[in-house]
Amino acid sequence: GDAPTAARRFEDVLSFLPDHAGAKAGLGRMRALQHHEKLEAWLAEARGAKNHGDLVSARDRCRDILALVPEEPRATALLGEVNAQIGSYTESMGYFLQGVSLYEKGEDEEAIGRWRKIPTGDAVYADAQANIRMAQDRIAARSLKGLMEQAQRFAAEEKWDEAIPLLEKALQVDSQNPEA
């Protein structure tokens, strides 16, 4: 017999015994034989989509394969990887958006903490790193402003022994500051 005939026989068995593991496996093998070229092309397409970050297309193509050949091991494994990445991306995007919200409220340290939870290599990692630098710059600017204001108050009162150390510290924070 040929693969289409064998597939029909396995389908007959499954119509009476829908949980028969041997018939399920046999039907999967016959469908894989019947649709080998399509299956290989779809697997390549799913891998390519995953590699280009198009996780939804990769997931959908894996599901197409599994609809045609249930329990196809390569598609099952790839679907597991894709679903894990989709879950990771969703979690990372949550951290990213929480960080943005905190940053907008001026809560820079908390924002940095959220952005640091995003794993290296994640789709939003580079953006999170840029935001961390931006928040760190704002923290440094606030620190510098506070130092300068306090030093100016001491200088206005001619308390040089207190003003000069603050100005030296301001220079350490920002050596390009003309006010220091």
Fold blueprint:
Elements: H1 3-16, H2 21-34, H3 36-51, H4 55-68, H5 73-104, H6 108-115, H7 125-156, H8 160-173
Helix pairs in contact: 1-2, 3-4, 3-5, 4-5, 5-6, 5-7, 6-7, 7-8
How would you describe what is shown here?
Helix content is 80%, strand content 0%. It has 180 residues and is mostly helical. Helix 3 (36-51) runs parallel beside helix 5, helix 5 runs antiparallel to helix 6 (108-115) and helix 5 runs parallel beside helix 7. It is rod-shaped, with a radius of gyration of 31 Å. The chain starts with a helix and ends in a 7-residue tail after the last helix. The model has no long low-confidence stretch (mean pLDDT 84).
Shape: rod-shaped
Q: Helix- and strand-based class? A: mainly alpha
Cα distance, first to last residue?
90 Å
Order of helices and strands: HHHHHHHH
Low-confidence segments: none
Fraction of residues in helices? over 70%
Number of helices: 8
| Mean pLDDT rating | 84
Number of strands: 0
